[in-house]
UniProtKB/TrEMBL annotation, chain B:
This is Carbohydrate ABC transporter membrane protein 2 (CUT1 family). SUPFAM superfamilies: MetI-like. It is found in: Cell membrane. InterPro entries: MetI-like (IPR000515), MetI-like_sf (IPR035906). Residues 65-254 form the ABC transmembrane type-1 domain. Keywords: Cell membrane, Membrane, Transmembrane, Transmembrane helix, Transport. Belongs to the binding-protein-dependent transport system permease family. It is a multi-pass membrane protein. Its main location: membrane. It holds the Pfam family BPD_transp_1. It comes from Kribbella pratensis. It comes from the Bacteria. Signal peptide: none annotated.
Length: 276, 270
């Protein structure tokens, strides 16, 4: 009786739709006419449709870059803030890096569209550039990676900082007595103790990055020429703009498989480096 | 010396981080002719609220704010309730298939909402619920992560407390609401903050389901305002964004401790 509300909702809004997505991917359907059995047509199309391949590549590039920059710089920030600092400085730094995470993606994307405006934006002014960031086929995706970093680094930073605070001071002290220098103490004490936190942050960042949608839709519409289109955005276009429901379902299954495989792989690899 | 230098780098980085937000507020407070000047003017002279007054002429801002609030409150309260009930059952009760059902739920943590959105859209269309706020909060009432998180939390509460209550003749509802949940308050707060924030900021789901301006939530409304403004007064858009962003930032400054604790413990991301 206690679980029935949750289970009922789960069946209707998670398990049911999951099964339905598999079924939908086997049919041609535009939401209006009678669905027509398509077999594996859409899965064949996934491989031959250049736009899908492009969207998958874009999403992987985005996710990899996102994880490396979030974990790498986030770790440096956490180490920087964890040292002895005056209270005021610590408060300012922590708050300043965390603020953007509180702003909804819709607002972030709109603000940055103006910051990046080639004529009157702050970016070009301070960089003394005349670049049209979002219209460049080579720069648009890296630009969105930077905007995403700005938006979510506060989250990664707080998680890593919390992890860093769990490292017992006695361990550092012991290593110091044994003559270990700062670098060696980081490598042999801090990193192993923090490994579960780093692992967790990596998994979450990957999953979040694979689902990226908002900045592409609001800032670039996937352009220029598909250079920033993500898997989810392509799913949206197919399902809700051109009403190829079956194709959209097939695309969303690709996302599901990608997330499952990458997450599974990380858990497998984690046995080699994560200390429990 | 090296420490001071590092502090300086971190502080400068912090200034760069908040620059776009300061620029947002400054432009929102500027007269249209003074806004978006380069080099930027960091103090609007004189500050004006006229851009804010124009927001309701372009979008039903108050209605959108109400929709956002309504959806976020129902989602948070509902998800906390269903999660708490299920978490209690999975941790404290014995029933056939308990562990199997729980592992199925756990496996569902990797199912992205983007996979379920297409079938749910079809279901909602069939129920004539597309373009209603119900379509937004109803599917959000089940939160697999919430069940998992609260189960962990409840398992750390000693069972002797329930046993004492059972001796006194208490039923499971009484134990859950009078013994367990009061002790699980930090966990409930952390989860609540996160569910609320995720709902308040959500763009993907409302963008797909809501199309009429008076049904929209704030994030979708802001994006629609961009369309309505076109090349026109960007200052009005900036004023609207400020109205959305500023309350959250102020709330954060007040409840910083609970916010940070919420992130560090749930580790969940919008």
């Amino acid at each position: 009786m206690f679980i029935s509300p949750a289970i009922l909702l789960f069946v209707v809004f998670v398990a049911g739709p999951l099964v339905a997505a598999f079924a939908l991917s086997l049919f041609h359907w535009d939401l209006l006419s009678t669905p027509e059995f398509a077999g594996l047509d859409y899965f064949r199309q996934l491989v031959t449709d250049g736009a899908t391949v492009r969207a998958v590549i874009n999403t992987f590039v985005f996710a990899l870059a996102s994880v490396v920059t979030h974990i790498g710089i986030g770790m440096l920030l956490a180490l920087g803030v964890h040292r002895t600092m005056t209270r005021g400085t610590k408060y300012f730094v922590r708050t300043a890096y965390f603020f953007p995470f509180l702003v909804s993606w819709a607002a972030v994307a709109l603000i940055w569209k103006y910051v990046l405006d080639p004529a009157f934006g702050l970016a070009n002014y301070y960089l003394s550039a005349t670049t049209n960031w979002l219209a460049s086929p080579t720069l648009a995706l890296p630009t969105l990676i930077v905007v995403d970093w700005w938006h979510t680094i506060g989250y990664t930073f707080i998680i890593l900082l919390a992890g860093l605070q769990t490292v017992p001071a006695q361990l550092h002290e012991a290593a110091r007595v044994d003559g270990a220098n700062a670098w060696w103490r980081f490598w042999s004490v801090t990193l192993p103790v923090m490994s579960p936190t780093i692992f967790f942050a990596t998994v979450i960042t990957f999953i979040g990055a694979f689902q990226i949608f908002d900045p592409m839709v609001i800032m670039t519409q996937g352009g220029p020429d598909g250079a920033t289109r993500s898997i989810v955005q392509y799913t949206y276009e197919k399902g809700f703009q051109s009403f190829e429901v079956g194709y959209a379902a097939a695309l969303s299954l690709v996302l599901f498989v990608v997330i499952m495989v990458v997450t599974g792989l990380q858990f497998r690899l984690s046995r080699r480096w994560v200390h429990q | 010396m090296r420490g001071k230098l590092l502090d300086l780098v971190l502080v400068l980085g912090g200034v760069v981080m908040i620059t776009p937000l300061v620029w947002l507020v400054v432009n929102a407070l500027s007269e249209p002719i003074d806004a978006f000047q380069l080099p930027p003017r960091w103090i609007p002279r004189p500050p004006t609220l006229q851009n804010f007054q124009q927001v309701p002429d372009l979008i039903p801002f108050a209605q959108m704010a109400w929709n956002s609030l309504q959806i976020a409150v129902i989602t948070t309260a509902g998800a906390l309730l269903t999660s708490a009930l299920a978490a209690y059952a999975f941790n404290r009760l014995r029933f056939p298939g308990r562990d199997q059902i729980f592992s199925v739920l756990l496996a569902a943590l990797v199912v992205p909402v983007q996979l379920t959105v297409v079938p749910i859209f079809i279901m909602m269309r069939w129920l004539h619920l597309v373009d209603t706020t119900v379509a937004i909060w109803l599917p959000a009432l089940v939160n697999v992560f919430g069940i998992f998180f609260l189960r962990q939390y409840i398992s750390s509460i000693p069972r002797e407390l329930d046993e004492a209550a059972i001796m006194d003749g208490a039923g499971h509802f009484w134990i859950l609401f009078r013994v367990i949940l009061p002790l699980a308050r930090p966990g409930l707060t952390a989860l609540g903050i996160f569910v609320f924030e995720a709902s308040w900021n959500n763009f993907f789901w409302p963008y797909i389901f809501l199309s009429s301006p008076e049904k929209m939530t704030l994030p979708v409304g802001l994006v629609s305002l961009q369309g309505a403004v076109g090349g026109g007064p960007a200052v009005v858009l900036f004023a609207a964004i400020t109205l959305v962003v500023l309350p959250i930032l102020v709330l954060f400054l007040i409840f910083q401790r609970s916010f940070i604790a919420s992130i560090a413990s749930t580790g969940l991301r919008a």
